[in-house]
Design goal:
Elements (H helix, E strand, L loop, with lengths): L3 E4 L3 H13 L3 E7 L6 H5 L2 E6 L10 H11 L3 E3 L9 H9 L3 E2 L4 H8 L1 H11 L14 H11 L3 E9 L2 E6 L2 H19 L4 E5 L5 E10 L4 E13 L2 E7 L6 H18 L2 E11 L2 E8 L6 H8 L3 H9 L16 E8 L11 E2 L2 E3 L6 E5 L6 E2 L6 E9 L2 H14 L1 E3 L5 H7 L3 H5 L6 H8 L3
Parallel strand pairs: 1-2, 1-4, 2-3, 4-5
Antiparallel strand pairs: 6-7, 6-8, 9-10, 9-12, 10-11, 11-14, 12-13, 14-19, 15-18, 16-20, 17-19
Helix pairs in contact: 4-5, 7-8
Length: about 450
């Protein structure tokens, strides 16, 4: 096992990893920007190192500074959390070259799954069902139009290095295709430094379903069931559920085994999530995230498995402790992301938290790193915390969520709590009758 783990992240995920390390008896190092000097994970870590000024590019994305912090503190492993450098193959490779363990998959697996074209080709080779689309990069509007007619409009133009909804445009005909191709390329170049795009069939009313997988790099791998992440705004997840309400246990077992078998063949190590669009009973691969997901707590709640603990174990060279036949799924869990944002405009709302009272009681978990008197900096994402609610049934879970959202108080900044108070009353939400377009349609039609 590791002696000391450096946590190359901030906020609630840094605190989540720190707690898992402490339970394993591992010393922790918190790295932080100047703005995060008073952050909770910095206060609770065994050691802390300031790695740069406030902008993420000068601190949390500064590989030389993080490497120097590892050397100064003699950390023998780095956990990247999610975001920042968590899917940066170069970072993983540099750590390995310096004999520091990257708690995650190999740089090779990060690379092949990080590029969407390569990921799709790999998925096909591994037997994972994919969305019909181009086999590789589409370079000209003429080529794109020919392919679009073969696939059938509408189609989605997507950046090969994309994520978070950037570099994605829908085209319904040839005229729109030229504009979509040009716009997607411009966005992709600005966001990722890579203007390569590809096209795939645009599904009209799909749900976003994902499969959590775990592997140990030795050919052992399991799946931990499904999550439904269909409630999204601008391709950013807002509300997540496990298990996915519309996927039957039989379907879950089938698609889960396909994913687990693929990870065994790949000899994948660590936690990963295979994401699908799901429509009319069919699964279509869209991407794989080679890291811990923001929404991992709902899976932990219905399985009783500590995913971060297992990540650390297998990174330290131990075999996967999980066997598929031993994994059971109990009840239902929902996570809502409470952000420091205006609930109407979604404009960021940084500032000082003057009063903080998280929800509590039976079936409630709150993953957060804020506290009363803490000032939310304007430089990073606006996540205040994640409210995770569990119930024996989805109905019980929803009832408990309604109570918990009303009980949760954050004063001093605007938050998205009022949005969840509205959503929990919607008939479509209560019935589980929504797709990836539902939330944006709801927000357009219900402007205050």
């Amino acid at each position: 096992m590791f002696n000391k783990v450096l946590i190359a992240n901030r906020g609630e995920i840094a605190l989540r990893i720190l707690r898992a390390c402490k339970e394993l008896g591992i010393q922790t190092v918190a790295v932080h920007s100047v703005a995060d000097s008073n952050a909770m994970h910095v206060r609770l870590a065994d050691e802390s190192v300031c790695i740069g000024p406030n902008p993420a590019k000068d601190s949390y994305l500064n590989i030389p500074s993080i490497l120097a912090a590892c050397e100064i503190t003699q950390a023998d492993a780095v956990h990247p959390g999610y975001g920042f450098l968590s899917e940066n193959a170069r970072f993983a490779r540099i750590l390995t070259e310096h004999k520091i363990t990257f708690i995650g998959p190999s740089s090779h697996h990060i690379e092949i799954m990080g590029d969407k074209i390569t990921a799709k080709k790999t998925a096909v080779e591994l037997g994972i069902p994919v969305v019909p689309g181009s086999e590789g990069e589409v370079k000209t509007a003429e080529e794109a139009k020919v392919l679009a007619k073969e696939i059938g409009y509408p189609v989605l133009v997507k950046a090969t290095a994309g994520g978070g909804g950037r570099g994605m445009k829908v085209a319904y005909n040839d005229e729109e295709m030229s504009i979509a191709l040009s716009t997607a390329r411009t966005e992709a170049k600005a966001a990722f430094g890579n203007d390569s795009v590809y096209i795939e069939k645009y599904l009209s009313k799909p749900r976003h379903i994902e499969i959590q997988v775990m592997g140990d790099g030795r050919g052992n791998a399991v799946h931990l069931g499904t999550r439904d992440c269909s409630l999204q705004r601008r391709h950013q997840k807002v509300w997540e559920e496990a298990s996915a309400p519309t996927v039957s246990p039989e379907q879950r077992a089938k698609i889960g085994e396909i994913c687990a078998a693929a990870m065994r063949k790949l000899k994948y190590s660590g936690a990963g999530t295979i994401e699908f669009l799901y429509e009319t009973g069919e699964f279509y691969f869209i991407e794989m995230n080679t890291r811990l997901q923001v929404e991992h707590p709902v899976t932990e709640r219905i399985t009783g498995i500590d995913i971060v603990y297992e990540q650390i174990r297998v990174a330290a060279g131990e075999k996967l402790s999980l066997k598929q036949e031993e994994i059971q799924f109990y009840g239902h869990a929902i996570e809502v992301r409470i952000n420091a944002e205006d609930p109407q405009t979604f404009a960021p709302s940084p500032g000082k938290i003057t009063f903080y009272h998280p929800a509590g009681g039976v079936g409630i978990r709150v993953d957060s790193a804020v506290y009363q008197g803490y000032s939310i900096p304007p430089y990073y994402d606006s996540l205040i915390g994640k409210l995770i609610v569990y119930g024996r049934t989805r109905s019980e879970c929803l009832q408990r969520l309604r109570r918990a959202v009303d009980e949760f108080v954050v004063d001093g900044v605007k938050t998205t709590l009022p949005l969840f108070q509205r959503l929990i009353k919607e008939p479509d939400i209560l019935a589980g009758n929504y797709d990836i377009h539902w939330l944006e349609k709801f927000l357009r039609e219900n402007k205050a």
